[in-house]
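Exercise 3.2. Students should predict the tertiary structure of the chain below and write it as structure tokens, then compare their answer with the key that follows.

Predict this chain's 3D structure.
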Amino acid sequence: MRFSVWPINQQPIYEILEVAKHADSTGWDGIWMADHLMGTRERTEVPLVECLTALSAIAVNISRLRIGSLVVSNTFRHPALLAKCFASIETIAPSRVVLGLGAGWQEHEHHALGIGLPDAPTRLEMLEEACQVIRDLLDRGRSSFSGKHYRLNEAVTLPKPSSRVPLLLGLKGDYSLRLVARFADAWNLWATPEILSQRDEILCKYCENDGRDNREISRTAQALVVFDEPESVDPRWAASGLPLITGGNAELQDHLGAFAEVGLDEFIVPDFSLGSGAQKLELLDRFFEDVARPFQTD
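Answer key:
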């Protein structure tokens, strides 16, 4: 299993870079950034670093880690622009960039910024076309495409990446998993082992229908990590509805063992629940050295 870190966007860029450089020097496998332009509905007035800007800064400051988006909202940027952005980031970090893409979802963010958020079926149509456009531009450096939502006429993205940029899709619904089976090199979701197993069964059926080996798709998932007893967990995380693993080293290893049993390839640790400053780095070290090491693969 690989292990990566997800720094929250709602911290200064120097703190994001501190986490990234620390992870790069201590053996982690990757670093991921979310794509939001505003805070939550409850906390809109918070400073927030834009995803692609952060990835560019991280790419300049680290030498080893894979870096990627978890995940870019397809509604925020035209897919041709997105392909160009990631091709450019790849020139900074050759062979280490992953384009993570999703359909878009946060209603208040779209409403406040005047960005259209169509219904879910339309967003999935847009995402399906975007995958084709992005793959064409990143692989061939050019595309002519005529779809329902996007049209390109001899579009060019140069320089092409030095190696294939993997496409990760962050999707969970029964119908949307068919796009993972068709287009994705990697798949991501917030999950417990039980959720991952149930969703994976559906993905495998889509892969079988398409004649694709499902193991070509890397499974990635994240859950909040808290070194504590369940009854002592910060109420913010307990009430968030997000998957959460808690306990001491042994209990957390049990959780990772359950993920390994259902075929997880990469576990991503959000830094949101690990405090700040030196405490955060210490807990990341503790997780990596005392919990994750027995499960880490090359």
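Discussion points: The longest strand covers residues 97-102. The CA atoms of residues 20 and 287 lie 16 Å apart.
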